[in-house]
Design brief:
This protein is of the alpha+beta class and about 120 residues long. The protein has 4 helices and 4 strands; from the N terminus they run ααββββαα. The protein has a 4-stranded antiparallel β-sheet, with no helix packed on it.
């Protein structure tokens, strides 16, 4: 009788110990083009270009992996980079041609009185 009680307690404790691989596996959540929501520990290759979220053990979003960019978005980013570079060149040229003189000290801008000049 004592042996069977010990055996039952041992089996119960073994069943309650979580498996390390299942407890710490990354979980992903993504929505396909039809609006279906999926949860899995692996993202199928056909769905890897969609935006997906990495979930913690408690189901909270810890990271968002953005969807792959379309060719139109890639071209737009290239165009914006070119425009930013041109803008920086214009700003640098404008700064070099500006003739703003800034006084070095307050004494340089104090008016002199007639008594000080004599």
């Amino acid at each position: 009788m004592n042996y069977s009680r010990w055996f039952c307690c041992f089996n119960l404790m073994v069943c309650l110990i979580p498996l390390p691989s299942a407890a710490h596996a990354k979980m992903y959540r993504w929505v396909d083009k039809q609006g279906n929501v999926y949860y899995s520990d692996q993202v199928p290759p056909s769905q890897s270009k969609l935006e997906r979220k990495v979930l913690s053990d408690t189901g909270r979003v810890i990271e968002t992996i953005r969807a792959a960019k379309t060719q139109e978005e890639i071209d737009l980013e290239k165009r914006l980079a070119i425009l930013r570079a041109e803008q920086e060149k214009i700003i640098a040229k404008q700064k070099s041609t500006d003739n703003i003189s800034v006084p070095l000290s307050i004494e340089a801008v104090k008016p002199t009185s007639p008594q000080e000049s004599s």
